[in-house]
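Lab notes, practical 5.
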Amino acid sequence: MKSSPCIVVSLVLGLTRFSQGVVLTAGINKTTEQQPEYRPEGPLVLCKFLPREFVDCDEPTDLKGNKTAKEETGKGCVKFGGSRYEDVEKTKVECNVLPDIECYGSRTFVREGVPCIKYSGHYFTITLLYSILLGFLGMDRFCLGHTGTAVGKLLTLGGIGVWWVVDVILLVMNSLQPEDGSNWNPYV
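Output from the prediction step:
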């Protein structure tokens, strides 16, 4: 049985790589030694510093107001939402680096400072247009989930116009928010 020169060369290369600490199994290189020391000036970024597009992070856990659970676990959201930066709670979530991304360090890590925000499809621009054009029928309040006041606004034709104008002003001043406590969707 004749062996081709390619097989002999690949066997020799495989043996030299094995002696250098790299094991070839089914075409995949797996290192048996520790990773070299991290070089900040090198091409690889620490995995925990990768941008959001390159990692898959869990959604923040809703603790539904349970402050003791947050103190015990150290992560999770007691409340969601908030109009101002200071009002938004921050938490920790577990993240995994996407499969084809190369980085240095552990591919699973905890990211801190993730905002406790949820979006449920409420758009500020569309709600403002509803308020201006159909606010006298309570359409803006129906869209935001305020059904009780929306029916009252519908039956009184926008409080004979007064409630209609007040709601437009409340929307512009960001005082009229979705009923479920979610934030405005950032796109249109």
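Observations recorded by the TA: The first helix runs from residue 5 to 19. The longest strand covers residues 90-97.
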